Amino acid sequence: MPDHAGLKAADLRNLLSANGIDTGGELSIELISGGRSNLTFAAADRTRRWVVRRPPLAGLTPSAHDMEREWAVTSALAGTGVPVATPVAIDRTGEFIGAPCTVVDFVDGDVIRSTDDLARWSDADVEANFDALVRTLAALHEVDYAEVGLADFGRPDGFAARQVRLWTRQWGLVQTRELPDVERLASLLAERIPDAARSTIVHGDFRVDNTILAPGDPSSVAAVVDWELSALGDPLTDVALMCVYREPVFSRVLGFDAAWTSDRYPSADAMAQRYAEVAGVDLGDWGFYLGLANLKLGVIAEGITHRALQGGSSGAAGAERAAEATASFIANGLAALEN
Q1: Are 322 and 328 in contact (CB under 8 A)?
Q2: Domains and CATH numbers, the chain
Q3: Which pLDDT does position 63 carry in this prediction?
Q4: Reduced to 3 states, what is the DSSP secondary structure of residue 9?
């Protein structure tokens, strides 16, 4: 279809033209992901395809839908050993489409979201994919962020403490009911901030369905996508989040049986240990990092329902029920700290 409530073909054509790209023939636009986070569209003319991302139509929360952030980090990583889609254009202010957005080249490949998608792989494929994902994350954390022009991308010092404050503050913006254990978890985390940490580029949302795999090859990552939560900070926050996404309750957040929660992948503990081996690092106060990751996912789950109740879900199935997972994440976070 030529238009969508979040993106009109004429507006996109004007944005591309302003960046020196002449489109041939009518532009087609298809919503390929929406309701959980930023809206993602596939756009095409007769010869070329792009992916366009913009914030949700309603229920926005500060810093959670940052187009400038995605643009900066993918532009910097292009040409490094970390695979990303080639940046094409950015609408920083919404001048062209009515909201900030980014445009990147379309990357052909496989996206594994559900357990049904995973079913076509052999066990050897799953193992190869797990290894590729861990190596890709470790490669990201090895990038010298100053050397690729990201020295001013953020303040890496004190990252973990700011994350605790950020997700505590976000809870106040998106909570749909009282849940005292959220404040309890946040308070305990604030008292247990690690004294020292590495500083790297962090993705902030790393798991299999935020990658595009080379066609027919689970062992090759063609592009890492969804960089809206990226930052400079402690890489163990990325590792812990990757592991906490393995919790079965995460499927309730997405509204379907998520591939990343499948027991065909190694356990969360095995994933963490494999990363430590590949990256050559210690996992530090692992209980703290797991607690923080659970706080973050609990608040994100609540935020999905918050947006749905405000009409910002774009019809995504089950968005109104995503917050049912929040209490489980918070309980798991408290348990991680106690253990």
Answers
A1: no
A2: 3-105 (3.30.200.20), 115-338 (3.90.1200.10)
A3: 47
A4: helix
